[in-house]
Amino acid sequence: MVSKLKNINPYFKPILESLSGLADRLSVRVYLVGGVVRDLMLGEKIFDLDIVIEADAIEFAHKFAEIHKKQFKKHHTFGTATVFFDNHHIDFVTARSETYSFSGALPKVKPASLKEDLLRRDFTINAMAISLNKSDYGKLIDFYSGENDLKKGLIRVLHGDSFMDDPTRILRAIRFEQRFSFKLERHTLKLAKEAISKNAFNLVNPHRLREELVLMLEEPLPRRYIKRLYELRILPLIDRNIRLNKKDFHILVKIEPAIEFYKARFKRHRQLEDWLIYLMGILYRLKSQDASKFLDTFGFRKGEKIRILSLYDNMDKIKQLNRKVLSHVIYKTLNPLSFENIIFFYAYCQKKAIKRHIEIFLDKLINVRLRLKGEDLRKLGFKPTTLYGKIFEKLLYTKIDKGFKTLEEEIREAHIIFENCQSKH
Ligand code: ATP
Known about the structure:
- By secondary structure, the chain is α+β, with helices and mostly antiparallel strands.
- The protein is built from 21 helices and eleven strands.
- The protein has helices at 13-26, 35-42, 57-68, 114-119, 146-152, 162-165, 168-179, 186-197, 206-217, 222-231, 235-238, 246-265, 274-283, 288-297, 302-319, 327-334, 339-348, 352-363, 374-379, 388-402, 407-424; strands spanning 30-33, 49-53, 71-75, 80-85, 88-94, 96-99, 108-111, 129-131, 140-141, 154-155, 183-184.
- It binds adenosine-5'-triphosphate (ATP).
- Residues 34-35, 50, 121-122, 126-127, 166, 168-169, 172 line the site of adenosine-5'-triphosphate.
């Protein structure tokens, strides 16, 4: 038998051997399962491990963590536990079966055999296991022909009710289909379309749909995933106001180079949350109040909501940058925006002037700081006033426009601004 663990990242080898030793000492069956087996067989990189135990997983994980003196966290509600190794984590779960009392419900779970545990999974390619017990260490356990589907590049559900039991699997199917350039197996596609036509998404907690949607948008080239959602007419079912058209795809295409442009040129700036920019590409034509409702229903975080909604508030202001403007106007328009908003606008606006102004902002203006501090103003004899904030703002804008290099230039300008202010008040 050729061990399926032969090519695993060497970091995991001693960990798996140690799991194997403990399994035999405790006389329990232990398996590597799910996506990690799929990825191993595809030769993909492995980051985390999913372990199924045909016994109490929390107890097993606890002993394992003690042996390695690693952090251990149990999740009683789910009967699962995680052990943390450096940047990797190992999840332990007791083999279990699941039954759904109605479509989209959270399943009722009870301890079961590995075979039943694998049957509760989404697709055949995610329903394989590798034994970690010494007697058959590295042996593939494949009750549902996952290996065959993996070779053929097929996403296949394990039973006819799968999508109705858990409609988020439709999004997962699309995610794996696009990620691996696989196909939905014919019957599986038919079942997905049936579930879609029965409006199955209405039955699911929107937060779960959000999680799947975000996972999709976090994959490389999310445009392909969005296109598939569009082809299968899924987006309007998630929210009836989302109706993409050809122009929207044009923008999604432009987002890719815009993100690349940012990453290549602005390595020092904060990392972008790329998925949020793609979500902007899906939502930007909605009315602001409809977008707000969508973001609330699906439980997006406050910071995400603020960034998306600021699109609508700034669309017109950005269009003002399509003419010759003073540098401080560029700064004033773009500085309050998140990088995600700016990059979305960079992709969205086709006018050269706007693009150039965004580049100037990111290249230069964003880094402009005043040398002068409040302390300096006081030392120079300026009386503290509620106008300090305004004075500094004006000074910064003038510095941006005139390109001051020295503190002296700033001081000279501060005098002028201060006097103007005082004469006005
Ligand atoms: P990824 O590479 O995106 O992490 P994954 O397959 O590892 O993919 P997870 O969400 O981590 O995905 O799930 C681990 C495993 O749990 C899956 O491989 C699958 O066996 C099972 N699983 C996850 N979600 C579902 C679901 N909604 N229905 C059934 N099984 C699921």
